[in-house]
Amino acid sequence: MLVSILNGFAIGFLLFILAVGLSLVFGMMDVLNLAHGALFLGGAYLGAQFAGDGWGGFLGALGIAAVAGLAAGGVLSLMTEPLRRRSHLDQALLTLGVALVVAELLIIVFGDDPLAVPAPPGLDGSVAVFGATYPAYRLVLIGFGAVLALVVHLVVDRTRVGALVRATVADREMVAALGVDNRLVKAGVFAVGSLLATTAGVLGGPVYGARPGLDSTILILALVVVVIGGLGSVRGALVGALIIGQVDTLGRVLLPDLASFILFAALAVVLVVRPQGLFGTAVAR
Questions:
Q1: Fewer beta carbons below 10 Å: N end or C end of the chain?
Q2: In this structure, are residues 199 and 193 in contact, taking their beta carbons and an 8 Å threshold?
Q3: Residue 52's CATH number
Q4: Are 283 and 272 in contact (CB under 8 A)?
Q5: What are the tens digits of pLDDT across the range 218-237?
Q6: How many separate domains does the chain show?
């Protein structure tokens, strides 16, 4: 049971790294980006390509994924800008089309066979945790996710950059009157969110591997996290990710045939009690 709980934390923090970007882009910039899962899959394939070369390859994959994520975020921001005043359905169709194209390109480049992603040297073994053995890489992933959650919270809530983003959400016209280009703010949030998605793919490679269809699976989990936590809330993304991590992991262990039902049942319960999510912001509501 301890191993399952730790697995839930590892999956939960990985989902946080992925979902917090989706939450900020959708909750603050009001753009529904369904290409987020494809960005994760791209990062996973980068990990499969380079992580086998030791720490240098793994860190190189992270660096390439970060640059690719920034570029993809900028492109997606430009593509969705003409749709800013239109419905979320138009945004969803556009970004879904991008996701399908990216997924097919990845299959052409890397093939359609599942690929394993090795953990970096030194983290590819197991350690003892209260008498049980547990993969060292997943423990490091838990620690990294916790540190990243603190950093994102401080940046969004305690810095001038975060204040600028929140001000843009609250009153675009006033921010524009102060000489700030709203499109640059949107592009910046989009780029950071996409960066988190691609790097989450590299980090999640040793856990999920890289395979066709992973983008859809991980996108559904990220959307569930965002809806449960509340749009635009870093704390909500963290709590929602940890809840889903535990529900999904323990559900597969205790009731494998009902795991998917339990996952969406948890989502339904939260929506009935708090339709805006656990920590939904006033903007999201």
A1: N
A2: no
A3: 1.10.3470
A4: no
A5: 999 999 999 898 887 888 88
A6: 1
